[in-house]
Amino acid sequence: MTSPLVTAIHSRDNAFVKDLRRLAQDSTQYRKQGRVWVEGDHLCRAALTRGQRVSIAVFSESFWPLAQVEWALAASKTIVLSDALFADISGLESPARMGFIIELPAATALQPDAATVVLDRVQDAGNVGSILRSASAFGFRQVLALKGSAALWSPKVLRAGMGAHFALDLIEAASLEDLQPLRVPMLVTHVHEGDFLHRAELPWPCAWVLGHEGQGVSAELEGRASRRIRIAQPGGEESLNVAAAAAICLHASASAR
Amino acid sequence: MTSPLVTAIHSRDNAFVKDLRRLAQDSTQYRKQGRVWVEGDHLCRAALTRGQRVSIAVFSESFWPLAQVEWALAASKTIVLSDALFADISGLESPARMGFIIELPAATALQPDAATVVLDRVQDAGNVGSILRSASAFGFRQVLALKGSAALWSPKVLRAGMGAHFALDLIEAASLEDLQPLRVPMLVTHVHEGDFLHRAELPWPCAWVLGHEGQGVSAELEGRASRRIRIAQPGGEESLNVAAAAAICLHASASAR
């Protein structure tokens, strides 16, 4: 195997550096560039394990000599940045020392019979990432995000997802019409109405719909749902965090299989 | 009732403004000042509903004429800040237009027989806030945070908690010794060992222990637990977000009562 091509960059004004900075700091830039910035060893390892194609491996200068050969060989092209430049590009408070640029996975077609999570304008990157982790943990392989949800491949959602992205089929910027082919029963949570989750007989596979942090699931989407389910909250508070509610619902479905 | 004293401030260098800025932006400042910054109408309403004593009500200049009388009368002292100053003080991307300064609730003594959540160095403010919401929703009235956990009354945790703080007895900066008096059985989640949650007979009341995002629950604390419980993850991922795991466990306990 030939040694990969290694390029050292020290200038902030380098064109590659400028593109990478946008990719790392702007949540929707990946859509324009068609590629994704995956930062830190945990995420990069998850990407490799799941067979993602790495376009470019990026290392900080001080870490490069310590990098595992496996990582350096993962990409046909390797870029080494000065530590200051790497820190400047990273969106993290504690920047990692390496990252991969991978191709944005091609959009997959909706699988009508797959266990699915539908995100109806869930806004917070941490919530979306946590929901992707729960989906992957509980065997929901397909996640469809309606327009207005956080950008799934943004650096913040990727970080919160902890690698779950690479185990899922993700569809984003979807419209309500895109949900039409779905044949599995659609369940929505409701604060005051519906069957209590802990007593409900849950269908499998199914699609759980999770709504906007403030407004919940839209009336139109709720109207299309097969069932409304509520989570008993004996403590008296009126609402859970959406990612907490998602975890409870997806776990209940997985346990009922 | 006499009209409350209203003071208008326009200077960034005003001593009150400087203290408030620290309180709103520094996560542990409340411990030094013995008071808490509660920003935005949702949180302020939750504080009032739960009988918190408001020391000072703070309004932006443009919102002040529109403020509800109830809010203006909640505090014996009212401060009106120019809009620019309010935005500068706020830690939020979209600053609210009003907030309360409340006294830091006095530390409560540990209740040995109460349903309890123990935070073992949970770091992320969003996670801690979400766990407080779940605790409150599922009837766990007592939360004890061990040293190394996120500061419970920090602005970020308060925001993520959505008012749950005011419904709970919170103990923070606790040591393992502080847990000694606890008489309810202590449960920890484990990735590979213990009874599966969905089949376990759960005791009530109990204490759920939730651990550090990367390291989990410390070995010492795990050694003190009565039982290890695992969450079945048929999808194959190895870990859930800690707030997601917390929601699942607390809901299971509440459903088993």
From TrEMBL, chains A, B:
The keyword Lyase does not apply. GO terms for biological process: methylation; RNA processing. Residues 116-251 form the tRNA/rRNA methyltransferase SpoU type domain. SUPFAM superfamilies: alpha/beta knot, L30e-like. Pfam families: MRM3-like_sub_bind, SpoU_methylase. InterPro entries: Alpha/beta_knot_MTases (IPR029028), MRM3-like_sub_bind (IPR053888), Ribosomal_eL30-like_sf (IPR029064), rRNA_Methyltransferase (IPR051259), SpoU_MeTrfase (IPR001537), tRNA_m1G_MTases_N (IPR029026). The keyword Transferase applies. Residues 14-96 form the MRM3-like substrate binding domain. Keywords: Methyltransferase, Transferase. It comes from the Bacteria. One of its GO terms (molecular function) is RNA methyltransferase activity. Belongs to the class IV-like SAM-binding methyltransferase superfamily. RNA methyltransferase TrmH family. PANTHER family: RRNA METHYLTRANSFERASE 3, RRNA METHYLTRANSFERASE 3, MITOCHONDRIAL. This is rRNA methyltransferase. It comes from Simplicispira suum.
